Amino acid sequence: MARVVGSVVATQKDPSLVGKKLMIVQQINSDQQPVRFEQVAADTVNAGIGDNVLIVRGAGARRADRERGEDQPRDVNDCTIVGIIDRFDK
């Protein structure tokens, strides 16, 4: 889980990132307190700054963009936003 805290603009990047929205996310715990460090995540769900989001890392992050065809270059992304959290029930 993470909170979107900003965005990144990069005019020069790997071809697999062209057209993707890159967001700065801060990992959070279930009490919505920051943990660990900020990182950059590709956004597949149109999240906005301040949104609490679900993120995946590693191979799952690279597979999250289903629009990529087999003829497209391999994704270099290691962190992807895959959902927007509506609420925390504890």
TrEMBL record:
PROSITE patterns on file: BMV
Stretches that traverse the bilayer: none
Keywords noted in UniProt: Bacterial microcompartment, Carboxysome
Superkingdom of origin: Bacteria
Protein name as it appears in the record: Ethanolamine utilization protein EutN
Protein's organism: Limosilactobacillus walteri
Subcellular location: Carboxysome
Primary localization: other
